[in-house]
Design a protein that fits this description.
It is a single chain. This protein is α/β, with parallel strands linked by helices. It contains 27 helices and 30 strands. Strands 5, 6, 10, 11, 12, 13, 14 and 15 form an eight-stranded mixed sheet that branches. The chain has an eight-stranded parallel β-barrel with strand order 20-21-23-26-27-28-29-30, surrounded by seven helices. Helix 25 (720-728) crosses helix 26 (740-764). It starts with a strand and ends in a 6-residue tail after the last helix.
Length: 783
C-alpha cells in the first residue's frame, strides 16, 4: 500500500506512525512545506484523558512526549484583584517544536519517509497512491481547491487574538481578566517546559481599536501586552513568532472524504483555543483513521467508517469550543459579578464541568461559590445562612410578593387531556403530585383563552365557568397540600391551532372537527395546514378581551402568578418573528412594530392582574432559522416587556417555523437565558434539556438564570425536587405530614449514598500525570 500525507504537523505525522505500525511494508511518505525544525506558536496542551489515548496507540512516542511535558493540576483565575485556584484538572504542556521532533523521530524509526521544504498543491503527482491524507492545516489548499465537494463553512469569530510566549514560569493553567482604560483584555497562559510558557491574548474588536492595536507589528503588540500584563509577567519578556493579531476561524466541513483523499486535523475542522483541543483533535483524527483502516475490508470502507464514526466526537468537541468562545466574546456581561461567581462561570463555561464535578475536585472553591450565592440571596431580603449555606437550587427567590421556597420549576407542558377545555382528574393528579413532590413553582400547560385559541381538541382552557371551577380545585389542592406556588400560563395557538393531539401527529391539521385559525399574516405552518386569517383590529380587540377575561378568572381561581405565552410560533409569537409577520401596517416591519400587539396584550393583563402578584412572559429567543429572531433580538424583546412591567422572562427557543434547525444538546437553551439575563438585566427562567439537579446548580451558581424549569424529568418523577433536596441536605424542604416518614428515610439514606458515590468516584479516578510524576520523584522513606 502506498500512502501520501500532505502536511507534516501532528495530524500527518501521527497518522504516518500509526499506519506504518499497522502495515510495516507500506510505502508512507510525509510531505511538509516547511523545514523540519520550523514551527509556529509555542506550546501545546493535552489532558490526561488524551494522553491515555496516546499511551494505548503508540507507547514509544507516548513515553517520549510525557518525558518532555510540564504537568499541572490547577486552573488559576485572576479577576479584579482576586485569584481562585481550582485543582484536579490534569493538564500537560509541551513545546510544539519538541512534539514535532519527537513524532518525526518516531516516524523515521518505523521507516516513514519525510520530505521537507516540498510544497504540494496538486495531488496528480500521487496518482499511484492508494491513500492521500490531506493534513495541510487550517488554511488547507486542498479543502479550498475542492470547496464545492468538501463544502466547508468558515465562521470568522469577532474577537481578536495573538499567540505569544514568555519566559515567565507558571504552575497552573492561568486565565487573567484585565480591565484597562480601553476595555477588557484576557490572557490564556500555561507553561509547556521549564522557563517557557504560552500566552494567548484576546480582546473584543472595539477594545482592540480603542487600544490602538490596529496596524501594530509583532514587537509593538508585544510591548503593549507587556504594559497591560506587566504586573503579572514580573519582568519577564514576551516572545513572538508570527504573533500577529487575527480572528479565529471556526471551520466545519460537510464532507471529509473525496475519492481516496481524506481531510485530517484543522484542515477539516477547527476548535477554539480556549478549550485547548486543536492538536488533540488532530492526533485523535489520526487514531480514528488508523482504527478504521485496521477494521475495514477496503480503503473506501475505512474512509466511510472514519468520517461517520469520528464526526460525532469532533462535532461534540466543536460545540463545547463554540460555547466556550462565546463566553469569552461576551465576558463583559459578567464583569460586575462577584469574583468567585465569575471564576465559577469560567470553569463551567463549556458545560463540560458542572457543580458536582467541581465540588468533588475542589470542595473549598465550591464552598465559596455557595457562600457567594447565599450572600446575594441575603441581600435580596431573605434570612439565609451565609456561612453554611444550602446549594443554589434550594435558595429562596422572590418575584414581587411571591416567595418561592426553591428554584426548581415544573415547566409548562401540554397534556392534551382536557375535555372541551375543562381540566380533568388527570390534571388534578398531575399538578398536585408535582407540587407535593417539592417543586418551588408549578406552571400550568398553555391554557387557552377561547375555544378557537386551542392548539388541539385536548387543550385546557379558561373561558367558561366549568373550566374556572376545575382550575380552582387544582389551585386549592396545591395551596392546601404543598409549599409550591402555581403559575397560570395563558396563550393562543394562532396558526398552529386546530391540529391533532401530540401522539396522533404533532402540529398536523385536524382532518375533521377543526375551527378557523388566525395569525399575524396568512402563512400556513405546513403547506397542507389551514391558511390562517390575518388578524385585523376587530379580531385583535377580541383576542385582547379574551386574554383579560381569562386572567380575571385566573385571579378568582387563586393563581399566584400569570405568564403570557409569546413563543413557539403561536399567535403572539407570530407577530414578533419576521418569519411569520409580513404585515405592512403598524404591526409589521420593525421589531418595535412587531412587538406592539403582544405588548398591548401584556399591558392589558398587567392592568387587571393584582399588582402584588408577578407576571412573566415566555419568548422564543431564537427561531433557529435564517432571517428570524436572534439572541440580540431576544434582549430587546425582554427589555420591552420589562419596561411594561414583566418580572421574569421565560426563555425558550424555536418552534416558529417547520424548517428550523435547532442545535440540541445538554442545557441547549441556557446560553440564551444567560444573554437575556445579563444584558437585559431582567430575571430569567431557563428551560431545555435540563435533566439533573447538578445541572440546575451549575446554571444558577454561574448566574445564567434565576429559576430552572425541568420538563421531562418531572413527567417521570413527580418527586424529582424532594429527592434532590435529600441528596443535597436541604432539610427544610416542605413535605406533607402524610409523607414525612418517607422524607425522613430518604434524607437519612441520601447522606450515606452520596458519601459512597463520592468515594467510588474518587477511587475510580485515575491519578493525574502530575500526581504520578510527584510520586515517582518522591524520596523513598527510610526503613
Amino acid at each position: 500500500m502506498k500512502v501520501a500525507i500532505i502536511g507534516g504537523g501532528p495530524a500527518g505525522l501521527y497518522a504516518a506512525i500509526l499506519l506504518k505500525k499497522q502495515r510495516p511494508g507500506a510505502d508512507i511518505t510525509v510531505y511538509e512545506r516547511n523545514r523540519a525544525d520550523d514551527t509556529f506558536g509555542f506550546g501545546v496542551v493535552f489532558s490526561d484523558a488524551t494522553l491515555d489515548n496516546f499511551e494505548k496507540h503508540d507507547l514509544p512516542s507516548y513515553r517520549r512526549i510525557t518525558q518532555e511535558f510540564a504537568y499541572w493540576d490547577d486552573i488559576a483565575v485572576h479577576f479584579r484583584g482576586t485569584v481562585h485556584r481550582v485543582g484536579g484538572n490534569g493538564f500537560c504542556g509541551c513545546s510544539r517544536q519538541k512534539l514535532l521532533l519527537i513524532l518525526q523521530e518516531r516516524a523515521r524509526e518505523l521507516g516513514v519517509a519525510l520530505r521537507f521544504e516540498v510544497d504540494i498543491d496538486d495531488e496528480s503527482g500521487f496518482a499511484d497512491a492508494d491513500l492521500i491524507l490531506l493534513a495541510d492545516g487550517i488554511n488547507s489548499r486542498f479543502r479550498e481547491k475542492y470547496v464545492d465537494h468538501f463544502q466547508p463553512e468558515v465562521d470568522l469569530r469577532a474577537n481578536k487574538f495573538a499567540w505569544m510566549g514568555s519566559t515567565r514560569p507558571l504552575d497552573a493553567f492561568t486565565f487573567i481578566f484585565q480591565e484597562t482604560e480601553w476595555g477588557p483584555f484576557i490572557a490564556h497562559a500555561y507553561q509547556y517546559e521549564a522557563g517557557h510558557s504560552t500566552w494567548i491574548f484576546e480582546t473584543d474588536p472595539e477594545t482592540f481599536k480603542r487600544a490602538g492595536l490596529t496596524g501594530l507589528d509583532e514587537a509593538q503588540s508585544a510591548a503593549r501586552m507587556a504594559d497591560i500584563f506587566g504586573w503579572f509577567l514580573n519582568g519577564h519578556k514576551l516572545l513572538t513568532n508570527r504573533s500577529m493579531w487575527r480572528n479565529f476561524p471556526m471551520i466545519r466541513s460537510k464532507r471529509w472524504v473525496k475519492d481516496n483523499m481524506v481531510l485530517l486535523g484543522d484542515a477539516k475542522a477547527s476548535a477554539h483555543f480556549s478549550i485547548g483541543s486543536g492538536t488533540k483533535l488532530a492526533m485523535e483524527d489520526a487514531i480514528a483513521l488508523a482504527d478504521a483502516m485496521e477494521k475495514a475490508p477496503s480503503i473506501k470502507a475505512a474512509l466511510e467508517i472514519y468520517e461517520h464514526g469520528r464526526r460525532e466526537e469532533v462535532e461534540k468537541t466543536q460545540h463545547a469550543a463554540d460555547v466556550s468562545l462565546v463566553w469569552f466574546e461576551h465576558v463583559n456581561r459578567f464583569w460586575d459579578f462577584d469574583p468567585v461567581q465569575f471564576a465559577f462561570g469560567v470553569m463551567t463555561r463549556s458545560k463540560a464541568i458542572t457543580y458536582d464535578n467541581l465540588k468533588l475536585r475542589a470542595p473549598d472553591f465550591v464552598a465559596e461559590v455557595d457562600k457567594s450565592f447565599a450572600r446575594q440571596v441575603r441581600s435580596s431580603g431573605f434570612d439565609v445562612d451565609t456561612e453554611r449555606p444550602i446549594v443554589p437550587l434550594f435558595q429562596p427567590f422572590r418575584l414581587r410578593e411571591m416567595k418561592l421556597a426553591n428554584r426548581a420549576v415544573m415547566s409548562p407542558m401540554c397534556m392534551y387531556s382536557a375535555k372541551e377545555g375543562v381540566p380533568t382528574d388527570f390534571h388534578l393528579v398531575h399538578y398536585g403530585s408535582r407540587a407535593i413532590g417539592g417543586a418551588g413553582l408549578i406552571f400550568t400547560e398553555m391554557t387557552c383563552v377561547s375555544r378557537e385559541a386551542r392548539i388541539t381538541p385536548g387543550c385546557a382552557g379558561l373561558w367558561n365557568d366549568e373550566q374556572e371551577a376545575a382550575w380552582h380545585r387544582i389551585v386549592d389542592f396545591v395551596h392546601g397540600n404543598s409549599a409550591a406556588k402555581i403559575c397560570l400560563q395563558l396563550g393562543h395557538a394562532g396558526r398552529k391551532g386546530a391540529t391533532k393531539l401530540m401522539w396522533d401527529g404533532m402540529d398536523r391539521p385536524l382532518e375533521q372537527g377543526g375551527w378557523e385559525v388566525f395569525s399575524a399574516s396568512p402563512l400556513p405552518y405546513f403547506p397542507d395546514s389551514q391558511v390562517p386569517r390575518e388578524l385585523d383590529r376587530v379580531g385583535m380587540n377580541a383576542v385582547r378581551d379574551a386574554f383579560v377575561a381569562a386572567a380575571e378568572r385566573g385571579e378568582r381561581c387563586g393563581f399566584d402568578m400569570l405568564e403570557l405565552h409569546c413563543a413557539h410560533g403561536y399567535l403572539l409569537a407570530s407577530f414578533i418573528s419576521p418569519l411569520t409577520n409580513t404585515r405592512t401596517d403598524e404591526y409589521g416591519g420593525s421589531l418595535a412594530n412587531r412587538l406592539r400587539f403582544p405588548l398591548e396584550i401584556f399591558e392589558a393583563l398587567r392592568a387587571v392582574w393584582p399588582s402584588h402578584k408577578p407576571m412573566s412572559v415566555r419568548i422564543s429567543a431564537t427561531d433557529w432559522a435564517d432571517g428570524g429572531i436572534t439572541g440580540d433580538d431576544a434582549v430587546a424583546i425582554a427589555r420591552a416587556f420589562a419596561e411594561a412591567g414583566v418580572d421574569l422572562v421565560d426563555v425558550s427557543t424555536g418552534q416558529t417555523v417547520r424548517d428550523a434547525q435547532p442545535v440540541y444538546g445538554r442545557m441547549f437553551q441556557t446560553p440564551f437565558s444567560d444573554q437575556v439575563r445579563n444584558e437585559a438585566r431582567v430575571a430569567t427562567m431557563c428551560v431545555g434539556n435540563i435533566t439533573t439537579a447538578d445541572q440546575a446548580n451549575t446554571i444558577l451558581a454561574a448566574g445564567r438564570a434565576d429559576l430552572v424549569a425541568l420538563g421531562r424529568p418531572h413527567l417521570v418523577d413527580p418527586f424529582f425536587t424532594m429527592k434532590a433536596a435529600a441528596w443535597y441536605g436541604a432539610n427544610d424542604a416542605f413535605c406533607p405530614p402524610q409523607y414525612l416518614p418517607g422524607k425522613d428515610q430518604i434524607f437519612r439514606n441520601s447522606v450515606r449514598d452520596r458519601q459512597d458515590l463520592e468515594e467510588l468516584k474518587i477511587k475510580a479516578k485515575p491519578k493525574t500525570r502530575a500526581e504520578l510524576k510527584a510520586e515517582a520523584t518522591k524520596p523513598l522513606a527510610a526503613e
